[in-house]
Design goal:
The protein is an alpha+beta fold. It has 2 domains: 1-41, Arc Repressor Mutant; 54-202, P-loop containing nucleotide triphosphate hydrolases (Rossmann fold). It is 49% helix and 14% strand. The protein has helices at 10-23, 27-41, 43-51, 61-69, 74-79, 98-109, 123-137, 150-166, 169-172; strands at 83-86, 90-93, 142-147, 177-180, 184-187, 192-198. A 4-stranded mixed β-sheet has the order 3-6-5-4. A two-stranded antiparallel ribbon has the order 1-2. A hairpin with a 4-residue loop joins strand 5 and strand 6 (192-198). Helix 1 packs across helix 2 (27-41), helix 6 crosses helix 7 and helix 7 (123-137) crosses helix 8 (150-166). It is globular and about 55 Å long. The chain starts with 9 loop residues before the first helix and ends in an 8-residue tail after the last strand.
């Protein structure tokens, strides 16, 4: 993620302050959401422009090797540039704790896993990051998000979308997002991540 300086007029500065107060967001978050809204409106045009660029001469072998290594493991993938949207600091690079690294290893090593952890320790974030890693390394797969309510699973899908959007361009362009909505994300490798499962539907009432 790059940090850039944006020069704006006084009127625009006041509008950003007003929106930040109204929406109870930071100034950087207001700017980020405005840019995202603009990019969604002109997504097709922007994607056509990016696809028309030829990076083959600019990417040397060392960079190609680095990109390849980032898919060797979930941990390497996250370290390559996966970011999360924090409430107080905006988009920040995801930093892993040791117990999260162990969880990633287990997620990648076992087909079935029961996690018995405390709340509010970042498990949802790690599972979202692993879901993105799995989606980008498996073709034509289907990943379903189950939660206690649909709104919760929608938020998790939004986290995954933010993580994909924040990836470095050379990595993101390998497996692009070709369609997205509040209910699903489809990547260029055919993999679909969706939140059309509500866990309450899977529990039979007595």
């Amino acid at each position: 993620m790059k940090r850039i300086n944006i020069y704006i007029t006084e009127d625009t500065d006041r509008q950003i302050d007003a929106l930040a107060d109204l929406l109870q967001l930071t100034r950087s978050e207001v700017i980020r959401q405005s840019i995202e809204s603009y990019s969604e409106t002109y997504e097709a045009e922007i994607q056509n422009f990016i696809e028309g660029l030829d990076f083959s001469d600019d990417i040397d072998q060392e960079l190609k090797d680095d990109i390849s290594k980032c898919f060797d493991s979930p941990e390497n993938f996250i370290k390559s540039g996966v970011c999360i949207n924090t409430l107080d600091r905006g988009i920040q690079k995801l930093k892993l704790y040791d117990f999260q690294k162990k969880l990633l290893f287990k997620l990648d090593s076992y087909n079935k896993l029961i996690i018995n952890h405390s709340r509010q320790v970042g498990n949802s974030t790690i599972l979202s990051a692993y879901a993105l890693y799995y989606a980008m390394t498996h073709n034509n797969a289907h990943i379903h998000i189950a939660s206690y309510c649909l709104q919760s699973s929608i938020r998790l899908l939004d986290v995954i979308d933010t993580m994909h959007t924040s990836l470095p361009i050379p990595i993101k362009n390998l497996i692009r997002c070709v369609a997205k909505s509040k209910r699903e994300i489809k990547l260029s490798n055919g993999t679909i991540t969706c939140n059309n499962i509500n866990i309450t539907r899977l529990i039979k009432k007595p």
